[in-house]
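Weekly sync notes, structure subgroup
Attendees: PM, AL, DS (notes)

Item 1: joint prediction request from the bench team. They want all three components modeled as one assembly rather than separately. Inputs as received:
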Amino acid sequence: MNITRRNILKTTLAASTAVALPHLWLPGSGEAWGATLKKGEPIKVGLLFSLTGSLAVPEEDSTLVMQYAIDEINKAGGVAGVPVEPVIVDAKSDFAVYSEKAKELILRDKVIAIFGCYTSASRKAILPTVMQRNHLLYYPTCYEGAECTQNTICTGPLANQHSKDLIPFMVGNFGKKVFFVGSNYVWPKESNKNAKIWLEQAGGELLGEEYIPLGSSEFGPVLNKIRDAKPDFIFSTVVGASDIAFHKQFKQEGFKVDDMPIASLTTGEIETRAMGAEFGAGHFLSAPYFQTLDNPTNHKFVEGFLASKYGKNGVTHYNMEETYISAYVFKAGFEKAAAEVGFENVTPRSIRDHSGGLVIEDAVSPEGQVWIDKDNFNTWLKPKIGQCQADGTFKVVKAAAEQVAPDPYSIYPDLGVCTANGLKAPDGSIRKNVI
Amino acid sequence: MDLGSLINALILGVSIASIWLIAALGLTIIYGTAGVINMAHGELIMLGAYSSYMLQFYLGLPYLLCLPVSFVIVALVGLALERGLIRYLYNRPLDTLLATYGVSLVLMQGVRLIFGSDPKYLAVPEIFQSNVMIGSVSLSVFRIVVLLVTALLVLALWLLFYKTRFGVQVRAVMQDKEMAASFGINSSRIYMLTFALGAGLAGVAGALFGVLAIVLPTMGASYVVQAFLMVVVGGGSLAGSVVASGVTGELQSVFAFFTNDTFARFIIFVLIVAFLRFRPQGLFAQAGARR
Amino acid sequence: MGNLYHNKIAQWIVYVVFFAALTIIPMTVSDSFLLNQLATYGVYGMLALSISLCWGFGGILNLGQGIAFGLGAYGMAMTMQMQSQSESNPIPPFMLNNSLDHLPLLWQPFQSTAVGLVLAVAVPTLFCAAFGGIMFRARVSGPFFAIMTLAMLSAFYTIILDRQAYTGGVNGLTPPSSFVFAGVEVDPYSPTAYWVVLCLLAGATFVAKLITQSSFGLVTQAIRDDSERVRFLGYSVAGYETVIYTVSGLIAALAGCCWVMLVQYVSPAQLDVGFSLSMVIWAAIGGRHSLLGSILGAFIIQGAQSYLGDAFLATWLLILGGFFIVVVRFLPNGLASLVESGLGLFDRQRPTSSPAPDGGRPMPAE
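Output from the run, pasted for the record:
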């Protein structure tokens, strides 16, 4: 018995060393995308969103709208003449599963790009994998910035774009005094730092700043503090289910929307529908897109999407539109790369390298013309301000005159500027993949 | 930070306490009587909210009528759960904890499959969407409703347990199942009825929470741990849960007033652990209760 | 002879075969995703092992194993994060966003990889020793201890969420590059990472197996079955409980380190109640009285989640929950008890006139 066991151990040990050694010195990064594209085979892209769990509410819509966009692209001849095939996975609202599924999409399915994530936490969970495999993530929603990787393209507004018009608009129309309420994590905090800058420029006054645990539905203490402070308006970065509880309790505690409207960065069509339009009516939202935007592209998008088999939830909102655009950013980037390096040689990295400065025209983009910044690969867009109506839709009350530049490090000028190759510090040194 | 705000915080504490209490009430009955740690309690709360939603959406029932009907619906679910599963596990307390966790997964996913994962909302009379001012103190009408419903339920439970024949039987089974059986009390029936009662109470809580916040398949998960802590700190008795929720609600409101909401929760969790270290049996352990 | 299932030599053979099989895998497959995935399952196997040791053999149901796992994981993530900072850039980027202009005291020890690794394992272990010691001496046990661990877990979860400048809040920590140890880069997709996890899993299983077969292990099993009697016999029940709880915490902390090495990420979600409960599910389904059974439980459940999950998508949680209910209701000792009774069938056919080979001593649970 003993002899047998020892023998087994010895053999396996010897064998394992032999196998393990060659791998020890494998580099951790580099051009790791191990596939090549062939004409005639569909181009595979990964859709990494949650279809179950607490994040399914916004993310299921993202999957649906991506499928719609891919169908639309394929019907019009595909990307560089080749159809696109989505690989759909369910991240189950679990950040560990995001990480696992990202690896699966990259290493096993060999997709050429991933469209995915809604929360910053899930993005952070998959970024190490994406960066080390030198892959490409389209992140189609708003986020805080302060990140400079060489493997992402973001089509939503950054913190520096999001509230730029909203704060002066609110100060001008309702008064100088404001109270900040947000969920307790990085995006609301970064957004509030930006909002403070606009507030100072507009001559406003910050009366208080409160953060609520994510998912909490108890707004009693915060509303008491707001009642004491008597602001002219509230600036809210509360997200998800909490946001709905916030609007409901705001009304239940006797606050009046006419005296103290909430200016939000998150409360869109989907939220007002979930809370009941009577709780949302009168409040303001800043977003690059509203379902009611009046232009031919948007009419076509809304009608086409709602009539398609993906339109079962009956709404289009800013997050879906940003996701929709990302599909066209991918198409344009891929085709540009294929034209320059040849179809067979297109890699995730080459798509990204050819995406700087891409313009998505009015005819394609429901929110109007946008383009990808050639340095930081975020999107130049026009934030708009909408006021929620009695039926839960939004009426656009102000639209930016021209596209606002994205700047992930706007409030950290000491750290440097995000360039295509990395974060360029004031001393001239460049660091790659800063997250 | 004047006195008025502090008084507001204290009054709000009462309201928070009533929310903690009504979430814990059903659990108190189930745990206090049968020693069952019901991890599916949060999902029973969620079922209460969805029952109200269904009653409103499909039958057009007025909100106030939804409360008692939700009680009945969820009580029936509880009854089925007890007959089908829990009754086989009474002498394995840790296993009931696990089995009911399995139940919670099934209920949550089942509801998601039926109703989808998008949030629903409950419509309530306009009067509930306002507030009343008493001097400088502001009270939301709906919070008063929650407080009143909770107080009514506590009173009703107290009468049920201490003034009726059923209550005597429940307490007898609680203290000594075998002895009670020798006096002709059907303990199996008592367990079944208390479980259904506890589930029904969770249903009422759900119907109320659906108005305060949001109706989602995952809404129950956030209540179950805090409800448990109330029950264990209280020692499994009705009075214990009332006191435990009262103190915790006040502490949360006051801590949140001085610091922030997240940190207030942290302090409360640590205080609960410290408290249980010195009084594992809870505030008011029932004399002679079986463990 | 008795039931082969209880035969120590047979058990060791099975264990060796299991680990030998795991050893062969990297020689036969070159799919780096599969290797990484299997290594992650190995980490979950360590967690199930730690639960089995604590709950199956010590009778202590721990619903807060995420504390030890999470603290270990944060320690490792801090170490790896500091590895990617340089002299000129000593502060992790997320701290700068939180207006910290110097490295906080809490983080300074992690500048050294060795110290960081030691802390990543030692802090959770010492926490378990202290928390367990205090609780068990107050004779907190059974469901009460389970609830206390749940409260403690929630406390850690909230404080990590709240102290964003030090922990990264809900986003957690994302070390941008692989772990480097003694000059060797441990690429999470390489066989090297797989070997590291496999060695630790095998080592932890070996130690746990020895513990359960020692006289110490027999006493803890006696405490599990009737703690009062053991106390009357003069044993320090609290002492035994603390030790087995601490060893279990140590294994979970190691698992936390491995996990971060593999996924390069940690967030408060690793201290979520649901995750700690799923560790218990692995052990319960596999068989909490069997170390190997628990490990396999983790492999089976996580494997099924990865490979059935997408096929069944919406019904996966329904299936998992239902399966779990059935196991708890009808197979309280998990799938391992099926093997036990299966082997018992052979045994019954033999005449059992002679007493059991170990002379009627209490049987180890396996």
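Discussion: The CA atoms of residues 413 and 426 of chain A lie 8 Å apart.
Action: AL to compare against the crosslinking data before next sync.
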